[in-house]
User: Fold this.
Amino acid sequence: MSRDNLVSSTLSGYTLKKEVGEGGTSAVYLADHANHGTVALKVLREKLRQDKTAVARFLREAKYGSRVQHPNVVRTIEIGQAENGLHFLAIEWAPGEILERHAKQNAPLPKDVVANIVGQIAAGVQAAHDANIVHRDLKPENVMYNPETGEVKLLDFGIATDTEASADERLTRAGFFVGTLMYIAPEALSGELVTAAADQYSLATIAYFLLTRCLPYTARAPREMFTQLLTTPPIALRQAKEDLEFNPTLEAVVMKALSRNPEHRYPSVKAFAEAFTEAATLPVEQAGVMSKFKGLLRRNK
Assistant:
Protein backbone atom coordinates (compact mmCIF):
# COMPACT_ATOMS: atom_id res chain seq x y z
CA MET A 1 0.00 0.00 0.00
CA SER A 2 1.25 3.51 -0.77
CA ARG A 3 2.25 6.01 1.85
CA ASP A 4 -0.74 8.20 0.88
CA ASN A 5 -3.70 5.87 0.46
CA LEU A 6 -6.21 7.93 -1.52
CA VAL A 7 -8.14 5.05 -3.13
CA SER A 8 -11.93 5.67 -3.04
CA SER A 9 -11.44 9.36 -2.27
CA THR A 10 -12.41 12.22 -4.60
CA LEU A 11 -10.14 15.08 -5.62
CA SER A 12 -11.65 17.97 -7.59
CA GLY A 13 -14.24 15.72 -9.17
CA TYR A 14 -11.87 12.79 -9.82
CA THR A 15 -12.83 9.55 -8.07
CA LEU A 16 -9.69 7.49 -7.43
CA LYS A 17 -10.40 3.83 -8.22
CA LYS A 18 -7.03 2.16 -7.67
CA GLU A 19 -3.32 2.93 -7.44
CA VAL A 20 -1.39 1.99 -10.58
CA GLY A 21 2.02 3.51 -9.89
CA GLU A 22 4.10 4.83 -7.04
CA GLY A 23 7.23 6.94 -6.74
CA GLY A 24 9.12 8.89 -4.14
CA THR A 25 7.32 12.17 -4.83
CA SER A 26 3.94 11.12 -6.18
CA ALA A 27 1.47 8.31 -6.77
CA VAL A 28 -0.58 7.57 -9.88
CA TYR A 29 -4.19 6.44 -9.75
CA LEU A 30 -6.78 5.19 -12.19
CA ALA A 31 -9.56 7.73 -11.77
CA ASP A 32 -12.98 8.60 -13.19
CA HIS A 33 -14.34 12.06 -13.92
CA ALA A 34 -17.84 13.04 -15.01
CA ASN A 35 -16.56 15.08 -17.97
CA HIS A 36 -13.12 13.63 -18.72
CA GLY A 37 -13.97 9.96 -18.28
CA THR A 38 -11.20 7.55 -17.25
CA VAL A 39 -7.85 9.23 -16.63
CA ALA A 40 -4.53 8.67 -14.91
CA LEU A 41 -4.29 11.03 -11.95
CA LYS A 42 -0.82 11.81 -10.63
CA VAL A 43 -0.90 13.24 -7.09
CA LEU A 44 2.01 14.89 -5.28
CA ARG A 45 2.73 13.42 -1.86
CA GLU A 46 1.06 15.11 1.09
CA LYS A 47 4.40 15.59 2.86
CA LEU A 48 5.74 17.56 -0.12
CA ARG A 49 2.85 20.00 -0.36
CA GLN A 50 4.92 22.75 1.28
CA ASP A 51 8.20 21.81 -0.47
CA LYS A 52 8.69 24.60 -3.01
CA THR A 53 11.20 22.65 -5.12
CA ALA A 54 9.05 19.51 -5.22
CA VAL A 55 5.99 21.55 -6.19
CA ALA A 56 7.97 23.42 -8.84
CA ARG A 57 9.19 20.13 -10.35
CA PHE A 58 5.68 18.71 -10.32
CA LEU A 59 4.26 21.78 -12.04
CA ARG A 60 7.14 21.81 -14.50
CA GLU A 61 6.31 18.26 -15.55
CA ALA A 62 2.71 19.30 -16.12
CA LYS A 63 3.72 22.38 -18.09
CA TYR A 64 6.20 20.57 -20.33
CA GLY A 65 3.81 17.69 -20.92
CA SER A 66 1.06 20.09 -21.98
CA ARG A 67 3.42 21.75 -24.48
CA VAL A 68 3.98 18.50 -26.37
CA GLN A 69 0.92 17.66 -28.44
CA HIS A 70 1.41 14.38 -30.29
CA PRO A 71 -0.44 11.05 -30.67
CA ASN A 72 2.53 9.21 -29.13
CA VAL A 73 2.62 11.40 -26.01
CA VAL A 74 -0.01 11.06 -23.29
CA ARG A 75 -2.33 14.06 -23.43
CA THR A 76 -2.43 16.46 -20.48
CA ILE A 77 -6.03 17.02 -19.39
CA GLU A 78 -5.86 19.17 -16.29
CA ILE A 79 -3.35 20.62 -13.85
CA GLY A 80 -4.73 21.66 -10.49
CA GLN A 81 -4.74 21.79 -6.73
CA ALA A 82 -7.53 20.03 -4.86
CA GLU A 83 -9.56 21.49 -2.01
CA ASN A 84 -7.31 19.77 0.52
CA GLY A 85 -4.22 21.39 -1.04
CA LEU A 86 -2.89 18.36 -2.92
CA HIS A 87 -1.39 19.11 -6.33
CA PHE A 88 -2.56 16.81 -9.12
CA LEU A 89 -2.03 16.20 -12.81
CA ALA A 90 -4.72 14.48 -14.88
CA ILE A 91 -3.47 12.83 -18.06
CA GLU A 92 -4.89 10.58 -20.74
CA TRP A 93 -5.38 6.97 -19.68
CA ALA A 94 -3.29 4.88 -22.08
CA PRO A 95 -4.35 1.22 -22.37
CA GLY A 96 -1.69 -1.46 -22.36
CA GLU A 97 1.25 -2.04 -20.06
CA ILE A 98 4.53 -0.45 -19.13
CA LEU A 99 7.06 -1.31 -21.85
CA GLU A 100 9.63 -2.39 -19.25
CA ARG A 101 7.27 -5.09 -17.94
CA HIS A 102 6.44 -6.28 -21.45
CA ALA A 103 10.11 -6.41 -22.46
CA LYS A 104 11.18 -8.33 -19.37
CA GLN A 105 8.55 -10.96 -20.13
CA ASN A 106 8.92 -11.13 -23.93
CA ALA A 107 12.27 -9.75 -25.12
CA PRO A 108 14.18 -10.29 -27.32
CA LEU A 109 11.39 -8.90 -29.51
CA PRO A 110 11.18 -9.34 -33.30
CA LYS A 111 13.03 -6.64 -35.22
CA ASP A 112 9.88 -5.33 -36.92
CA VAL A 113 8.13 -4.98 -33.55
CA VAL A 114 11.13 -3.11 -32.14
CA ALA A 115 11.19 -0.85 -35.21
CA ASN A 116 7.52 -0.02 -34.66
CA ILE A 117 8.10 0.81 -30.99
CA VAL A 118 11.26 2.83 -31.64
CA GLY A 119 9.58 4.75 -34.45
CA GLN A 120 6.64 5.78 -32.27
CA ILE A 121 8.80 6.76 -29.30
CA ALA A 122 10.99 8.78 -31.65
CA ALA A 123 7.95 10.56 -33.11
CA GLY A 124 6.83 11.63 -29.64
CA VAL A 125 10.34 12.63 -28.59
CA GLN A 126 10.87 14.57 -31.82
CA ALA A 127 7.68 16.53 -31.05
CA ALA A 128 9.19 17.39 -27.67
CA HIS A 129 12.46 18.46 -29.28
CA ASP A 130 10.55 20.64 -31.74
CA ALA A 131 9.04 22.35 -28.67
CA ASN A 132 12.60 22.86 -27.26
CA ILE A 133 12.10 20.18 -24.60
CA VAL A 134 14.60 17.40 -23.86
CA HIS A 135 12.97 14.51 -21.99
CA ARG A 136 16.17 13.39 -20.15
CA ASP A 137 14.61 10.20 -18.77
CA LEU A 138 13.75 7.97 -21.71
CA LYS A 139 13.53 4.37 -20.53
CA PRO A 140 11.08 1.46 -20.94
CA GLU A 141 9.51 2.34 -17.59
CA ASN A 142 8.35 5.67 -19.04
CA VAL A 143 6.63 4.19 -22.08
CA MET A 144 3.17 2.65 -22.32
CA TYR A 145 2.83 -0.12 -24.89
CA ASN A 146 -0.32 -1.84 -26.09
CA PRO A 147 0.67 -5.27 -27.54
CA GLU A 148 -2.75 -5.71 -29.12
CA THR A 149 -2.63 -2.54 -31.22
CA GLY A 150 1.12 -1.86 -31.23
CA GLU A 151 0.41 1.67 -29.99
CA VAL A 152 3.04 3.51 -27.93
CA LYS A 153 2.61 6.47 -25.58
CA LEU A 154 5.45 8.43 -23.98
CA LEU A 155 5.07 9.29 -20.28
CA ASP A 156 6.65 11.40 -17.56
CA PHE A 157 8.25 14.77 -18.27
CA GLY A 158 9.20 15.04 -14.60
CA ILE A 159 12.88 15.81 -15.20
CA ALA A 160 12.59 17.25 -18.70
CA THR A 161 14.32 20.52 -19.44
CA ASP A 162 13.68 23.49 -21.68
CA THR A 163 16.73 24.09 -23.86
CA GLU A 164 15.86 27.79 -23.99
CA ALA A 165 15.44 28.21 -20.21
CA SER A 166 17.79 30.55 -18.38
CA ALA A 167 20.14 29.27 -15.70
CA ASP A 168 17.88 30.78 -13.03
CA GLU A 169 14.92 28.78 -14.31
CA ARG A 170 16.64 25.39 -14.10
CA LEU A 171 16.00 23.19 -11.09
CA THR A 172 19.04 20.91 -11.46
CA ARG A 173 22.16 22.12 -9.67
CA ALA A 174 25.39 22.29 -11.65
CA GLY A 175 27.48 19.16 -11.21
CA PHE A 176 24.47 16.90 -10.54
CA PHE A 177 23.08 14.62 -13.21
CA VAL A 178 19.48 13.53 -13.56
CA GLY A 179 18.09 10.47 -15.29
CA THR A 180 18.37 6.70 -14.96
CA LEU A 181 21.97 5.53 -15.05
CA MET A 182 21.33 2.47 -17.24
CA TYR A 183 19.82 4.65 -19.99
CA ILE A 184 21.59 7.97 -19.49
CA ALA A 185 23.87 9.53 -22.11
CA PRO A 186 27.53 9.87 -21.04
CA GLU A 187 27.54 13.65 -21.47
CA ALA A 188 24.70 13.97 -18.95
CA LEU A 189 26.99 12.71 -16.18
CA SER A 190 28.68 16.11 -16.01
CA GLY A 191 25.47 17.71 -14.78
CA GLU A 192 25.51 20.22 -17.62
CA LEU A 193 22.43 20.99 -19.72
CA VAL A 194 22.16 18.23 -22.32
CA THR A 195 20.92 18.50 -25.89
CA ALA A 196 18.43 16.45 -27.87
CA ALA A 197 21.28 14.05 -28.69
CA ALA A 198 21.04 12.69 -25.13
CA ASP A 199 17.49 11.48 -25.77
CA GLN A 200 18.70 9.77 -28.94
CA TYR A 201 21.31 7.86 -26.92
CA SER A 202 18.64 6.76 -24.43
CA LEU A 203 16.32 5.63 -27.22
CA ALA A 204 19.15 3.63 -28.79
CA THR A 205 19.68 1.94 -25.41
CA ILE A 206 15.97 1.07 -25.32
CA ALA A 207 16.24 -0.40 -28.83
CA TYR A 208 19.31 -2.41 -27.79
CA PHE A 209 17.43 -3.80 -24.78
CA LEU A 210 14.31 -4.70 -26.78
CA LEU A 211 16.42 -6.51 -29.38
CA THR A 212 18.59 -8.44 -26.91
CA ARG A 213 17.13 -8.25 -23.40
CA CYS A 214 20.60 -6.99 -22.47
CA LEU A 215 22.06 -3.53 -21.93
CA PRO A 216 25.12 -2.08 -23.72
CA TYR A 217 27.08 -2.13 -20.45
CA THR A 218 27.50 -4.92 -17.91
CA ALA A 219 28.23 -2.90 -14.75
CA ARG A 220 26.59 -4.27 -11.61
CA ALA A 221 27.01 -1.21 -9.39
CA PRO A 222 26.39 2.53 -9.97
CA ARG A 223 30.04 3.51 -9.52
CA GLU A 224 31.15 0.87 -12.04
CA MET A 225 28.44 1.96 -14.48
CA PHE A 226 29.51 5.58 -14.13
CA THR A 227 33.09 4.63 -14.99
CA GLN A 228 32.12 2.43 -17.94
CA LEU A 229 29.94 5.13 -19.47
CA LEU A 230 32.81 7.59 -19.41
CA THR A 231 35.68 5.31 -20.44
CA THR A 232 34.46 2.13 -22.18
CA PRO A 233 32.75 1.61 -25.54
CA PRO A 234 29.35 -0.12 -25.34
CA ILE A 235 29.22 -3.83 -26.13
CA ALA A 236 28.59 -4.37 -29.84
CA LEU A 237 25.04 -5.45 -30.62
CA ARG A 238 26.15 -8.76 -32.16
CA GLN A 239 28.07 -9.60 -28.98
CA ALA A 240 25.15 -9.01 -26.61
CA LYS A 241 23.99 -12.64 -26.81
CA GLU A 242 25.56 -15.64 -28.51
CA ASP A 243 22.30 -16.99 -29.93
CA LEU A 244 21.20 -13.70 -31.56
CA GLU A 245 22.18 -12.56 -35.03
CA PHE A 246 21.86 -9.03 -36.43
CA ASN A 247 22.71 -7.68 -39.83
CA PRO A 248 25.75 -5.34 -39.94
CA THR A 249 23.66 -2.35 -41.00
CA LEU A 250 21.31 -2.61 -38.02
CA GLU A 251 24.25 -2.95 -35.65
CA ALA A 252 25.95 0.06 -37.22
CA VAL A 253 22.80 2.17 -36.78
CA VAL A 254 22.38 1.28 -33.10
CA MET A 255 26.06 1.73 -32.27
CA LYS A 256 26.20 5.10 -34.05
CA ALA A 257 23.37 6.37 -31.87
CA LEU A 258 25.27 5.01 -28.84
CA SER A 259 28.39 7.00 -29.69
CA ARG A 260 29.97 8.57 -26.62
CA ASN A 261 30.45 11.82 -28.52
CA PRO A 262 27.03 13.43 -29.22
CA GLU A 263 28.35 14.89 -32.48
CA HIS A 264 28.91 11.38 -33.85
CA ARG A 265 25.25 10.40 -33.46
CA TYR A 266 22.45 11.05 -35.97
CA PRO A 267 21.39 14.67 -36.52
CA SER A 268 18.04 14.00 -34.87
CA VAL A 269 16.10 11.29 -33.07
CA LYS A 270 13.83 11.11 -36.12
CA ALA A 271 16.83 10.41 -38.37
CA PHE A 272 17.95 7.62 -36.03
CA ALA A 273 14.49 6.01 -36.05
CA GLU A 274 14.28 6.16 -39.84
CA ALA A 275 17.71 4.54 -40.21
CA PHE A 276 16.79 1.91 -37.63
CA THR A 277 13.52 1.02 -39.37
CA GLU A 278 15.24 0.73 -42.76
CA ALA A 279 18.00 -1.48 -41.35
CA ALA A 280 15.59 -3.65 -39.35
CA THR A 281 13.70 -4.65 -42.48
CA LEU A 282 16.78 -5.73 -44.44
CA PRO A 283 17.69 -9.43 -44.75
CA VAL A 284 21.05 -10.27 -43.22
CA GLU A 285 22.68 -10.95 -46.62
CA GLN A 286 21.38 -7.77 -48.28
CA ALA A 287 22.34 -5.64 -45.30
CA GLY A 288 25.87 -6.97 -45.41
CA VAL A 289 26.24 -6.09 -49.08
CA MET A 290 24.81 -2.60 -48.53
CA SER A 291 27.14 -1.99 -45.61
CA LYS A 292 30.18 -2.89 -47.74
CA PHE A 293 28.91 -0.76 -50.64
CA LYS A 294 28.49 2.31 -48.40
CA GLY A 295 31.97 1.73 -47.03
CA LEU A 296 33.42 1.74 -50.55
CA LEU A 297 31.56 4.96 -51.35
CA ARG A 298 33.01 6.64 -48.27
CA ARG A 299 36.55 5.56 -49.17
CA ASN A 300 36.18 6.82 -52.75
CA LYS A 301 35.02 10.30 -51.74
